[in-house]
Amino acid sequence: MKRDHKDSGARDGVIPPLSDRRRAFLVAGAAGALGIGVGHRPTKAAGKTPTQARIVIAGAGAAGLAAASRLSQALDGAKITLVDARKEHFYQPGFTLIASGIKPTNYVVSSTREYIPSGVELIEARVAEFDPDGNKIVTDSGQTLTYDYLIVATGMTLEYGLIEGMDENLIGKEGIGSIYHSPAGAHATWQSMSAFADRGGRGVFLRPATEMKCAGAPLKYTFITEDYLTRRGSRSKAEVVYNSNSQALFSVPIVSEKVRMLFQSRNIKVNYGRVLKAIDPGRRIATFSTSEGTEEQNYDFIHVIPPMRAPAAIRNSSLPWRTGAWAAEGWMEVDKGTLRHVRYPNVFGVGDIAGVPKGKTAASVKWQVPVAVDHLVAEIAGKRSDALYTGYTSCPLITRLGRAMLVEFDYQNNLVPSFPGVIAPLEELWTSWVMKTMALKPTYISMLRGRA
Amino acid sequence: MKELDPTILLAVFQEMLGPLLWVLLAIVVLGTAAFLALLIKERKLIARRLVLSQALGVLGGALALVLMAQVSSSGFTDAGGPIDWLLIALVFGLGLVGSAILVYTVGGWWSFRRS
Q1: Which domain holds residue A301?
Q2: How do residues B13-67 score in pLDDT, each as one tens digit?
């Protein structure tokens, strides 16, 4: 491993170097997929840090639950409160598989409660107001919670309403799909896409101009749809068009170039600098903004990915970036290496809400949460942590049913393969598909429980 | 992989297989113990039984590949690179060796019971 990781000097032995842990995590996944076990002496956990600290975690999604598990493992006596109104938990990396007809809807649905560590309180409400100056939050039921430390893990909101004519009730109708919406939305998308794959026609794909979760998914779904058209003998009757919001297909140049090559070989047309502005479901016309104005594209199937931004409660608070590209979308102004808020040192932002350059994915969560928790726990213990998040994230970029490229990268756009020379990052492999379909969900669930 | 923590592996396998993990582990442990006990008792490998169990082991290997295809919604026809062929060989090999040992062991103890 070449990257510049540092272990926590304050809590030696608790968290091994990130690169090694990441590899262990992926090895676990790979080994699970391969049906083999790799044995080694366990690292002994250090004792818990005693404290009376009140810690509020806003949001009980992947990041919030993983943080709660790790904090409850590391602290003794802390009052940890999770706040989230949603009772269901969604394994979001599985949405693509539902929309590809590979997994049923219930594959991604479980309940938040089953991951709440003992001793952690869950308040089933939405955070309506953040007041980091007063060290408190207010829920939509009017309850005020004060804290010593706040971990913000609210996730983001999908803004379908910012596309004129678009309504989330249209998903699954009029040739409109959107895998991001929900498990039911992903299933409805599968039905629309499957019908399109039978008939052929014009398939339109795109991504929003905002920051987004799993930037690989728009590409994956384009590949998968093209694959279904081919498998069902409709490819010759179909046109597949991908509209990129920028001049690239992916933020990591080497990956972007690889995808460009694959798109070319699969006869997927690419338009650059197109952002979906409006949709007319009746006429099946999508209107994109271009550098020269607007452009209308007809479609028989369109995969709509809405603009994404921070939830209103965050945007209306003093937590977001105040300048720069992320101010308007409301992402939290955190240090990209520690996830600690730049202006409020007792506040951390993890997961999708973090205003950091890369990765709104479950893999990012996996590597962000231990770093943020390590800094928080070290502070409680009166020590200093050197734990650093390097921006590592990964994307099993499905290129056809049965094959994926295991793309892993960091803030610097470096490829950081966990198995250099074994699993090539830009090679379409069955092994990577097997990891995606078999090993990632168990690994993700282990992460929620603080066990991976 | 010097930092690989088996508790992570265990956690992932537990999430993946649920109670089946313990059943499979029990089969592996008990099967291996029964095989070793049989070897000690017989003090040699019985060629005829070995050939039969190896032949059935080939079926076991094929079954392992079919099972893998089922659970991964894909199959060995999707192989795209060397690691894929290695994985296929590994799955087949584990299926073959595992079922051959199991058949050999069960066959051995069965013949003891009958005699």
Answers
A1: 160-308
A2: 999 999 999 999 999 999 999 999 999 999 999 999 999 999 999 999 999 999 9
A415 lies in a domain? no
- 3 state DSSP class of B82: helix
Question: What distances in angstroms separate CA A77 from CA A73, A74, A451, one per listed residue?
Answer: 11, 10, 20
Minimal CA–CA distance to A95: which of A348, A335, A362, A293? Answer: A362
Q: Do residues A260 and A301 share a domain?
A: yes
Q: How confident is the model at residue B77 (pLDDT cuts 50, 70, 90)?
A: confident
Q: How many CA atoms lie within 13 A of A13 on its CB side?
A: 6
**Residue A416 covered by a domain:** no
Compute the nearest-CA separation of B68 from chain A (Å): 9
Q: Looking at the structure, tell me whether residues A301 and A169 fall in a common domain.
A: yes
Q: Point out the domain boundary residue: A308, A326, A354.
A: A308
- Domain co-membership, A167 together with A281: yes
- Shared-domain flag, residues A300 and A314: no
What does residue A123 show for φ and ψ, rounded to 5 degrees? -105, 120
Residue among B2, B3, B24, B91 with most chain A CBs within 10 A, to mutate: B3
ipTM value for the complex? 0.90
Q: Report residue A390's pLDDT band, with 50, 70 and 90 as the boundaries.
A: very high
- B19 in contact with chain A, both atoms CB, cutoff 8 A: no
- Residue A251's φ and ψ, nearest 5 degrees, are -70, -25
Question: Do A365 and A444 share a structural domain?
Answer: yes
To the nearest 10°, report the CA torsion of A365, A368, A373, A374: 150
Q: Kindly report the backbone phi and psi dihedral angles of residue A211, in degrees, each rounded to the nearest multiple of 5, phi listed first.
A: -60, 150
Which residue among A308, A338, A369 closes a domain?
A: A308
Q: How many domains does chain A have?
A: 2
* A164 and A294 within one domain: yes
Q: Classify residue A182: in a domain, yes or no.
A: yes
The answer to the question of residue A277 being in a domain is yes
- CATH number, domain with residue A147: 3.50.50.60
Do A282 and A349 sit in the same domain of this protein?
Answer: no
- Residues A406, A414 contacting (CB under 8 angstroms): no
C-beta atoms of B80 and A403 within 8 A: yes
Counting one residue from chain A and one from chain B, the pairs whose CB atoms sit within 8 A come to 137
State the pTM of this model.
Answer: 0.90
List, in order, residues 6 or more apart from A323 with CB less than 8 Å away.
none
> Is A424 annotated in the active site?
no
Spell out which residues of chain B touch residue A401, defining contact as CB-CB under 8 Å.
73-74, 78
Nearest to B9 among A16, A31, A431 (CB): A31
What gap in Å lies between CA A280 and CA A275, rounded to an integer? 15
In this structure, are A71 and A189 located in the same domain? no
* Pick among A96, A431, A440, A447 to test the B interface (most B CBs inside 10 A): A431
Q: Strand order of the sheet with strand A275-280?
A: A275-280, A285-290, A293-298
**Is A224 an interface residue toward B (CB < 8 Å)?**
no
Four-point Cα dihedral A181, A187, A193, A194, nearest 10: 180
